[in-house]
C-alpha cells in the first residue's frame, strides 16, 4: 500500500473488527510493512446486552455506522481502517471528509460524497454490469471497476481505468443511482439525509460522467439496525424436465411430491409446510404465466419449501427422486443432488437511538460532532393520482426502447427505477406509467403488493417502491428471484402507447 500511496478502509471486520485489525497488524509486521491499521467498533448491539425491540432470539444485531469515525481514524494517521457494520457509501465519504476537511453540518457536500459512494459501492454495476443495454457493453471479461474523481466542492466524475472493458455513460450511472433506494427525497444515511431528485448526470467525455446536484439535510438521531433471527428451515431443488408440455409435467411432479409429503406430515403430527414455491423456469413463470398453457419443451423446475422442522424437509428431499420413475416423463436429474435443509435467516430492521451507541476507534471512545438531537422532517407520500395522458402520437413501444430500468431490494421491498433515454420523454413516460400500472403488471407477486411512485426530474427518471414484493426477501425468500434483480428486466416489456415516433425524442 505505502509504495503506491494508497490508504484503504473496508467494512470487512465482520463481527470482530478489533480482532481483524489486530491480526492485520501482526501480518503486516511479519511482512516488514510499516502500516497503521485502525479499527472502528460499536456497531454490534448484542455485545452491549441489548435485547432488541421484539420478543425474538436474535443471532446478530448491528447498527449501520457512518463515515465520521472512519474520517477521524484517518485523521489519526491510519493507513487501513477496518470497520464492523457501516453503510457502504461511508467507505467513500469518510476519506472525503478527511481529505477536504468537510464539516459534518455541510450537508450538501456530505450528500454528494455519499452519492459518490453509492454509485461505486456495487463495483461494476455502474460501469456496464446489470445494464439495460448489456449488448452495447464491450468486453465483460475485462470489465473495469468504477473510479470517482471528487473535487473539494463535492462535484465529481465517474470513470474507469483505461484499457478495460465496460461502459460509463448517463445510463449506467443513473441506473446505479436509483439502485436499492426508496424515497429519493430522503435517502437516509447516518451522516446525512440525501435528496437525489435534482441530481444531474452529464456525459463529459468518453467513459466519463459528471454528477452534481445532490442535496442534504441533518440526519436522524437514530441508527438503522440490521438484525437477524432463525425462523425455521428451507430447502430448494432444481430439476430439468424435457419433452412436450414440459412445464405442465414439471408442475404436476413437483406438486404431487409436495402433496405426498403433506399427507405423511399430517399423519405423523409434524405439521404442514410453511410455504411452498414451484416455478417452471423457461415457461415465463417470473412473468406470472400459467405453466399449463406453456408450449415450451424444456424447463427447469424450481421447488423451494419451508417448514419449522428440519427433519420434515429431509423427508421431502428423499421423496423427490421418486418422480423419476413414478410420475410424468421427462424428469432427468436433480441439479446438485439431493437438497439439504438450511436455516431461514430472517432480516429484522429497526431504528435505535444514536445516543445509546458507544463507538470506539482502536478501543478509545469516539465522540461524534454531528447534532443527533433533532428529528428530521417527515415527507408526505407524493400524490399518486395519475394525470390523463396527453395525446402525443400514434406509436407504441416496449419500454426498453424509450427508457433504461434497474431493480433491487431492501428486505421484502423491491425498487424499480425507470430512466428516460432522453429528457424530452419525461412527460410522456410520467403520464403513461403510474404506480397502479406497475402494481397491475406485477400483481402475480401477491395480493399485498403496494407500489409508490417517486419522481427525479433532474435525471428524467422515476422510482417505484414495491412493498411486499419478494416473498420475504433475501435469504428468507423461497423464490428464484429473492432480491428482485429481474423486476427491471421484466418491466422492459411494458408497452408505452400513444407517443410520437422515437426519432422525435432524439432516439
What structural class do the secondary elements suggest? alpha+beta
- The rounded distance between the terminal residues' Cα atoms is 46 Å
Strand order of the largest sheet: 1-4-2-16-17
Which word captures the global form?
globular
Largest sheet: 5 strands, mixed
Strand content range? 25-35%
Mean pLDDT: 94
**Residues in helix, %:** 10-25%
- The radius of gyration computed from the alpha-carbon positions, rounded to a whole number of angstroms, is 25 Å
Number of helices: 11
The total strand number stands at 23
Could you list the spans in which at least 5 consecutive residues all have pLDDT below 50?
1-5
Helices and strands in order:
Layout: E1 8-10, H1 17-30, E2 37-41, E3 60-63, H2 68-75, E4 80-83, H3 90-100, H4 107-120, E5 147-150, E6 156-159, H5 170-178, E7 187-188, E8 193-195, E9 200-205, E10 208-212, E11 215-217, E12 222-242, H6 246-267, E13 275-281, E14 298-307, H7 310-320, H8 323-326, E15 342-353, E16 359-361, E17 364-366, E18 395-398, E19 403-410, E20 413-420, H9 426-432, H10 435-441, E21 450-456, E22 461-467, H11 487-491, E23 495-499
Parallel strand pairs: 1-4, 2-4
Antiparallel strand pairs: 2-16, 3-12, 5-6, 6-10, 7-8, 8-11, 9-10, 12-14, 12-15, 13-14, 16-17, 18-23, 19-20, 20-22, 21-22
Structural overview:
Helix content is 22%, strand content 27%. It is α+β, with helices and mostly antiparallel strands and 507 residues long. The chain has a five-stranded mixed sheet, with helices on both faces. Strands 3, 12, 13, 14 and 15 form a five-stranded antiparallel sheet that branches. A four-stranded antiparallel sheet has the order 5-6-10-9, covered by helices on one side. Helix 6 packs across helix 7. The longest helix has 22 residues. It is globular, with a radius of gyration of 25 Å. The two termini are 46 Å apart.
Amino acid at each position: 500500500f505505502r509504495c503506491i500511496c494508497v490508504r484503504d478502509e473496508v467494512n470487512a471486520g465482520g463481527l470482530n473488527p478489533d480482532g481483524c485489525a489486530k491480526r492485520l497488524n501482526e501480518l503486516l509486521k511479519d511482512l516488514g510493512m510499516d502500516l497503521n491499521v485502525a479499527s472502528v467498533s460499536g456497531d454490534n448491539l448484542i455485545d452491549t446486552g441489548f435485547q432488541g425491540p421484539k420478543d425474538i432470539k436474535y443471532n446478530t444485531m448491528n447498527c449501520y455506522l457512518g463515515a465520521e469515525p472512519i474520517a477521524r481514524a484517518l485523521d489519526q494517521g491510519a493507513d487501513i481502517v477496518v470497520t464492523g457494520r457501516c453503510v457502504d457509501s461511508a467507505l467513500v465519504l469518510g476519506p472525503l471528509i478527511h481529505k477536504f476537511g468537510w464539516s459534518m453540518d455541510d450537508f450538501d457536500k456530505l450528500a454528494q460524497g455519499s452519492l459518490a459512494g453509492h454509485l461505486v459501492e456495487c463495483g461494476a454495476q455502474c460501469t456496464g454490469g446489470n445494464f439495460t443495454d448489456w449488448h452495447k457493453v464491450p468486453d465483460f471479461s475485462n470489465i473495469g471497476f468504477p473510479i470517482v474523481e471528487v473535487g473539494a466542492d463535492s462535484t465529481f466524475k465517474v470513470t474507469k481505468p483505461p484499457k478495460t472493458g465496460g461502459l460509463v455513460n448517463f445510463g449506467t450511472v443513473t441506473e446505479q443511482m436509483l439502485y436499492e433506494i426508496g424515497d429519493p427525497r430522503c435517502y437516509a444515511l447516518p451522516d446525512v439525509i440525501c435528496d437525489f431528485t435534482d441530481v444531474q448526470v452529464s456525459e463529459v467525455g468518453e467513459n466519463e460522467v459528471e454528477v452534481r446536484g445532490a442535496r442534504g439535510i441533518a440526519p436522524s438521531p437514530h441508527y438503522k439496525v440490521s438484525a437477524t433471527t432463525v425462523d425455521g428451515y428451507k430447502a430448494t431443488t432444481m430439476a430439468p424436465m424435457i419433452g412436450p408440455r414440459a412445464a405442465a409435467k414439471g408442475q404436476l411432479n413437483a406438486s404431487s411430491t409436495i402433496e405426498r409429503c403433506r399427507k405423511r406430515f399430517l399423519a405423523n403430527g409434524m405439521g404442514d409446510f410453511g410455504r411452498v414455491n414451484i416455478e417452471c423456469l423457461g415457461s415465463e413463470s417470473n412473468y406470472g404465466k400459467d405453466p399449463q398453457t406453456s408450449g415450451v419443451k424444456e424447463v427447469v423446475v424450481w421447488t423451494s419449501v419451508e417448514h419449522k422442522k428440519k427433519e420434515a424437509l429431509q423427508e421431502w428431499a428423499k421423496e423427490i427422486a421418486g418422480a423419476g420413475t413414478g410420475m410424468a416423463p421427462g424428469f432427468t436429474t436433480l441439479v446438485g443432488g439431493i437438497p439439504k435443509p438450511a436455516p431461514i435467516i430472517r432480516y429484522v430492521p429497526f431504528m435505535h437511538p444514536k445516543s445509546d451507541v458507544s463507538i470506539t476507534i482502536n478501543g478509545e471512545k469516539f465522540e461524534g460532532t454531528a447534532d443527533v438531537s433533532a428529528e428530521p422532517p417527515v415527507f408526505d407520500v407524493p400524490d399518486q393520482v395519475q394525470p390523463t395522458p396527453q395525446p402525443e402520437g400514434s406509436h407504441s413501444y416496449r419500454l426498453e426502447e424509450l427508457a433504461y430500468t434497474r431493480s433491487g431490494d431492501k428486505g421484502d421491498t423491491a425498487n424499480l427505477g425507470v430512466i428516460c433515454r432522453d429528457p424530452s420523454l419525461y412527460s410522456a413516460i410520467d403520464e403513461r406509467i403510474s404506480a397502479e400500472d406497475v402494481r397491475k403488471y406485477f400483481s402475480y407477486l401477491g395480493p399485498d403488493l403496494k407500489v409508490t411512485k417517486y419522481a427525479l426530474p433532474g435525471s428524467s427518471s422515476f422510482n417505484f417502491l414495491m412493498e411486499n414484493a419478494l416473498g420475504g426477501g433475501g435469504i428468507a425468500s423461497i423464490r428464484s428471484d429473492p432480491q428482485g434483480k429481474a423486476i427491471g428486466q421484466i418491466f422492459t416489456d411494458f408497452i408505452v402507447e400513444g407517443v410520437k415516433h422515437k426519432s422525435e425524442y432524439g432516439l
